[in-house]
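Design review, sub-item: ligand-bound model
Attendees: FS, YL, KQ
YL presented the inputs for the magnesium ion complex:
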Amino acid sequence: MARTRVLEVDPLNPDVEVIEEAVRVLRDGGLVAFPTETVYGLGADVFNTRAVLRVFEVKMRPLDNPLIVHVSGIRMLDEVATEVPEEVIRVLEVAWPGPLTVVLKRSSRLPSVVSGGLDTVAVRAPAHPVALKLIESFGKPVAAPSANLSGRPSPTSAKHVLEDLGGRVDLVLDAGETFFGVESTVVDVLRDPPRVLRPGPVGPEELERLFGKPVEVPDYARGLELYSGAPPSPGLKYRHYAPEKKLLLVERGSCSEGEYLGYLRELVTRLVGTGVALVVSSETAEELGGIPSVEVVVLGSRSNLYEVAKNLYASLRELDRLIEASLGVAESFEERGIGLAIMNRLRKASSRRVVCGSLPPTALI
Ligand code: TXA
Ligand code: MG
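KQ shared the predicted structure:
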């Protein structure tokens, strides 16, 4: 395809003509990138196998990594899933629309390519007026992975979508920046206790309140290991969210705030001259920003993890654009609420991790 059209759309009161145009493109088997409250998605008619195959092709996504199906609400669930437990319906009545994706038994009507040949399907109802209006007007579920090239940071603006997929998709609906900035929480609700497959804006504490019982957060959901063999969620096999530059994540371990800052300072000072950049909170930037010839990418205040999440992917893209930098040194954040998603993404994006104090900074260089 030669051309990608971009239509601006009001995020709160989506213009009817723009939505109608996007619906026409979906009906014709085309691909529409649209905003959700998490990241931009790349949408296709879920029942059009050719359109869905094109999603995999333009993203260069492996065919065994299934797509999330987007619905406008619980009433649309029946079209793609079956035998949904009553307990799950009660949770979705509270959590939807919102950044919670549930893995359910797949309906036999759903083309198997959507769910990568699995007998399950991941479904969510997005809480973004543009996404909801689009699905409602289309009248059918929309398959939509994040609208990035496979392995790249997810897009939180239409500009990011065009960087990765410009010329490869039919239409981009530009409604400005997305709200959360990290992808939805994915939960396998067919297991008891429910298991977090990918952490997101709905943190484990909130999930436990919603389900009224403990939920399981395995190590791979924290980003601590990459799966080999048959993973419970196919996406876990693949490296994700990665910038092109090398990223060294410095975990806090049991260091105090002062020790952590000291360790970062010594590490970065020793790296001066090798093209090092800091990817840190505004507080840390304030403390360490003065080191000569070290560029600083600010993620936001570490006392506001929502701000850090929202800026995370744009910051990784910014690191790639810093001509002088060859290595980013990233700060770690508290694993609570959306912080678990931040740490999962940072660990997966990093080419190396080091725990504060475990190695003298000299040993790392
Ligand atoms: O916030 C989001 O979820 C965004 C926006 C666009 O809604 N979408 C998104 O989709 O992140 P995608 O395709 O980039 O990520 C889907 C994740 C992958 O890790 C995939 O492996 C997992 O969900 N997944 C999909 N279907 C699954 C299934 N049946 N069982 C287990 N994991 C599944
Ligand atoms: Mg993705």
